[in-house]
């Protein structure tokens, strides 16, 4: 269960119903990564129905590599987890799929999309879908990337969407006010 706290973009899975897929290989290298989306460089917050929240701080590390600092807070505003990750993307179909490199050498994979000027969502690749459908006996960068490319448009490949709001933006304040009025 502790590894679920590592998923950010990303201990994000604490608020998801499915567990994210953890891989031993990446789908591309730092050098092959696409240019990072500059709009992501900021502080972001995701609120959960139980009153807990996930905070991310995303900074540029290299041309295509992001440094993500993640904090998880419970409903009583007590910090439960603090981690950092490196993220770097690859164009797969019409999406940018991010390798999320954890300190233990494992990788998570996620796509993101903008839903507004100060809002985006992420979806992590689902472990159950991978276990049922990715049948390779040896996982390599080549066959993992091929499988993700083949299935990237299937909704089942990804877990639930997790929405993030730019900290201190009008959208952030609107959601925060709603959560407070709802008793969270």
Question: Can you put this structure into words, describing what you see?
Answer:
- Helices cover 16% and strands 35% of the residues.
- The protein is α+β, with helices and mostly antiparallel strands and 184 residues long.
- The chain has an eight-stranded antiparallel beta barrel with strand order 1-2-3-4-5-6-7-8.
- The two termini are 25 Å apart.
Short description:
By secondary structure, this protein is of the alpha+beta class. The chain has three helices and eight strands; from the N terminus they run βββββββααβα. The two termini are 25 Å apart.
**From N to C, what is the helix and strand string?**
EEEEEEEHHEH
Number of strands: 8
Helix content: 10-25%
Give the strand content.
35-45%
Radius of gyration, Cα only, in angstroms?
A: 16 Å
Strand order of the largest sheet: 1-2-3-4-5-6-7-8
Indicate the structural class: alpha+beta
Based on CA inertia axes, which overall geometry fits? globular
- Unreliable stretches, pLDDT < 50, 5 or more residues? 1-17
What are its keywords?
eight-stranded antiparallel barrel; 16% helix; disordered N terminus; single chain; alpha+beta; 3 helices; 8 strands; 184 residues
Structural topology:
Layout: E1 42-47, E2 53-60, E3 65-73, E4 79-92, E5 95-101, E6 107-116, E7 119-124, H1 127-133, H2 141-151, E8 162-166, H3 170-181
Antiparallel strand pairs: 1-2, 1-8, 2-3, 3-4, 4-5, 5-6, 6-7, 7-8
